[in-house]
């Protein structure tokens, strides 16, 4: 197990180094300081707003780890889906800009993950009773 951890840590460090190298040598990025501002802004929004709100909601209103887990997944899916959802129907004359039914797909993703959470809850409840 120790060898696996060392190998994955080295691989991860190598990938991070490759990403930083690509970031610093990308012709589209004219000011790396803008990237740092963007990265720290994302960190502040994630750790300063998103996670505390989810933790407070989960601790205050939700019972059970499966439902809490599903709410975290639903929040992450919503965060990813929000930009196209807010721009749905506004393609500015370019039909290929937002070509998919994003609202339907978002609701479908939430439904599939809710069913998976419900099945997980039922299986764990059945195992506890049996």
TrEMBL record:
The chain crosses the membrane at residues 7-24, 36-62, 69-86, 106-124. Keywords: Membrane, Transmembrane, Transmembrane helix. This is Integral membrane protein. The keyword Transmembrane applies. The keyword Transmembrane applies.
């Amino acid at each position: 197990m120790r060898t696996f951890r060392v190998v994955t840590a080295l691989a991860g460090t190598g990938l991070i180094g490759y990403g930083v190298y690509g970031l610093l040598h990308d012709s589209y990025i004219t000011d790396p300081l803008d990237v740092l501002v963007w990265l720290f802004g994302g960190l502040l929004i994630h750790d300063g707003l998103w996670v505390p709100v989810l933790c407070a909601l989960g601790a205050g209103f939700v019972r059970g780890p499966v439902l809490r887990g599903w709410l975290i997944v639903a929040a992450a899916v919503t965060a990813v889906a929000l930009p196209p959802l807010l721009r749905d129907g506004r393609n500015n004359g370019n039909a290929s800009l937002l070509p998919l039914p994003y609202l339907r797909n978002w609701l479908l993703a939430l439904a599939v993950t809710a069913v998976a959470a419900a099945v997980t809850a039922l299986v764990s409840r059945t195992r506890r009773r049996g």
